[in-house]
Amino acid sequence: MSNMMEIKDLQAKIGDKKILNGLNLTLEKGKVHAIMGPNGAGKSTLSKAIVGHYDIEVLGGEILYRGENIVDKEPEERALDGIFLSFQHPVEVAGVNNAYFLRTAVNAKRRHEGKDELNAAEFLREMKKQVETLGMKPDMISRSLNEGFSGGEKKRNEILQMQMLQPDMIVLDEIDSGLDIDALRAVSEGINSMKDGERSFLVITHYSRILDYIKPDYIHVLKDGKIVHTGGPELVAQLEEEGYESLGEA
Amino acid sequence: MKLSDLKQRTASEILAAFGRDGAAAKSAETLEKMGLPSKKTEAYRYGDIEAVLEMDLTIASEPKPAEILPSVQLIITDGVVTHAPASVKLGYSKAIPADQGHFDPLYHLGHVASPGVWEIEIQDEVYLHIIHRFTKPTSLIPYRLAVHVTPGSHAAVYEQFIDTGATGSLVLYGYDLFVGRDATLKMVKNQTLDSGSYQMVASHRCEVGSAATLDLATFDFGSASALQMMQIALGAHAHVEASHLLYASGSAKRGTVSKILHIGEGSTSNQQAKSILGEKARGIFDALIKVEHSARYTKAHQNSKAILLESGAYMASRPQLEIYIDELEASHGSTTGQLDGKQLFYLQSRGISAVEAKRMLIQAFANELIDAVDGEMIREILHRDFDEAFYGQTRVECIETCHGCEEVVLNEGV
Amino acid sequence: MPQQELDKAVSGEYALGFEIDIEQDTVPPGLDENTIKFISAKKDEPKWMLELRLKAFEKWKKMTEPSWGHLEYEPIDYQSISYFSAPKQAPDSLDEVDPKILEAYKKLGIPLEEQKQLQGIAVDAVIDSVSVKTTYSEELEKHGVIFCSISDAIRDYPELVKKYMYSVVPVTDNFFAALNSAVFTDGTFVYIPKGVRCPMELSTYFRINALNTGQFERTIVIADEGSYVSYNEGCSAPTRDDNQLHAAVVELIALKDAEIKYSTIQNWYPGDENGKGGIYNFVTKRGICEENAKISWTQVETGSAITWKYPSCILKGDNSVGEFYSVAVTTLAQQADTGTKMIHIGKNTKSTIISKGISAMKGQNTYRGLVKMGAGAEGARNYSECDSLLIGDRCGAHTFPYLESKDSLGQVEHEATTSKISDEQLFYLRQRGINEEDAVSMIVHGFCKDVFKMLPMEYAVEAKALLNLTLEGSVG
Question: Superfamily assignment of A3-43+53-246 in CATH?
Answer without folding.
Answer: P-loop containing nucleotide triphosphate hydrolases (3.40.50.300)
